Structures are given as structure tokens and as C-alpha cells.
Amino acid sequence: MSNATILVVEDEPAIREMIITALEMASYSCLQAEDVPQAHQQVVDHRPDLILLDWMLPGSQSGIDFCRRLKKDELLQETPIIMLTAKGEEDNKVQGLDAGADDYITKPFSTRELLSRIKAVLRRSNALSGDKPIEHKGLSLDPASQRVTADKTPVDIGPTEYRLLAFFMSHPERAYTRAQLLDQVWGGNVYVEDRTIDVHIRRLRKVLEPYNYAGFIQTVRGTGYRFSTQVNL
């Protein structure tokens, strides 16, 4: 997505300038902020196409706090976020993704890798942001408003489970391996173990269970998972 506007939220001026220079050379428009209040104002005023968000920021709110805040805002939650951080442990990566981040890149990183991640996230975001609602036997997902309803009843769903369900409903009746789901929903450059995929599948089923739609998320033995409205025998 050339000419996209990217908000760089980073408190270290040297790193922020390095990122902005690389992005502008790649024909992206850039906004910048050094803390959460500035970042929130930029998001509200300019609605960037993507946010590069540092985990550790000055002030009372961290980057991951801001990520959670955005994903709870109906007007802003569709903005894709890539977390930038020196925290490379797996638990931190899982925490960042669970907060709603679309990808995660650990410092130090090359500008080439960063640009590759940005392109991948924007591509996936565009693929999941079509305007036409998707419906399967009473379960409906509206990409424009990012709302899910079950028999016209609103469903309270987290950002990661929403992306997983959006992908499933856009590709029904096909089995996907955990690796394929990881690539399509989280991005192939993110390190997430198989068990983490399973955790999100269980969460998605739990969200759909009260409406009797959990059975649409089916386990395919020896492969992975599929979305199907047919009875899984």
C-alpha cells in the first residue's frame, strides 16, 4: 500500500528519525509522537493507516497499554499496529499479540525487515477490511464496523479472535494448518507457538458458545482447523 500514512511512536529521537527516513524513502507519509498522549492525538486527528508503536514509552502509559486502549475503541480499533520493542522473550510477544498488535518486531532490526513487515501487515489489513458483511447461518461479521452478531445479537469479541474469525468466515469449508493461520492472521514473521494458536481457537469457541456457533470452528485431525456450517462428524 504505497503512500500509506504511518504513525511512528518512539521516545528515542535517533531511532524515530531513522525509522521516518526509511519510511519516507519508501514513499510512506509519516506522523510522529514520543508518548501516548501525543500518539492518541495524532490517531484521532489523522487516522493513520498503520502505527509503529514502541513498547516502552515515558509517562504513565506504556505502548502496550495504548495498544489495548485503541483496540477497545470502536472508531480506532481497525488501525493495524506493529509493536517495536527490545523485549524479545516469547511471553512478551504473546502478550503484545494478545493485546491486539498485528505484528511484533524486536530491536535492533534492519529497515529492510521493517519495511517487509509493514507491507505484509497492510496487505493483510486490506484483505480483511472489505466493506461487505459476511454471514453464515445467522453468524454475521461486518468488516466496516468490525462488529460480530449472532442472530442479530452483538457478540463481545477481542481483537485477535475477531481477526481469526474474519479470516475463517472469509475462507469457509477449507482446512488450514496452524502455520497457515499464523501466516494469515498474525503474519509469518511473528514467532508464536502452536499452543498459542490453540489458545485463541479455544477463546473464539468460548465467545461463540453461548450462541451455539462454537461448532463452526472445527478441528481437523492431522491438519489444523476449518470454519464450516456443516456438522462435524
Q: What characterizes the major β-sheet? A: 5 strands, parallel
Radius of gyration over C-alpha positions, nearest whole angstrom: 18 Å
Query: What's the total count of β strands?
Result: 12
Q: In which range does the helix fraction lie?
A: 40-55%
CATH architecture call of the largest domain: 3-Layer(aba) Sandwich
Mean pLDDT: 86
CATH superfamily of the largest domain: Response regulator
Portion in beta strands: 15-25%
The tally of structural domains comes to 2
**SS content category:** alpha/beta
By DSSP (H or I, 4+ residues per run), the number of helices equals 8
CATH topology type of the largest domain: Rossmann fold
Low-confidence stretches: none
State the name of the first-level CATH class of the largest domain.
Alpha Beta
Cα(first) to Cα(last) distance is 42 Å
Shape: globular
Arrangement of strands in the largest sheet: 2-1-3-4-5
N-to-C series of helices and strands: EHEHEHEHEHEEEEHEHHEE
Walk me through what this model shows.
The model has no long low-confidence stretch (mean pLDDT 86). With 233 residues, this protein is α/β, with parallel strands linked by helices. It is globular, with a radius of gyration of 18 Å. The chain folds into two domains: 5-127, Rossmann fold, CATH 3.40.50.2300; 134-227, Arc Repressor Mutant, subunit A (Orthogonal Bundle), CATH 1.10.10.10. It is built from eight helices and twelve strands. It has a five-stranded parallel β-sheet with strand order 2-1-3-4-5, with helices on both faces. Strands 6-7-8-9 form a four-stranded antiparallel β-sheet, covered by helices on one side. The chain starts with a strand and ends in a 6-residue tail after the last strand.
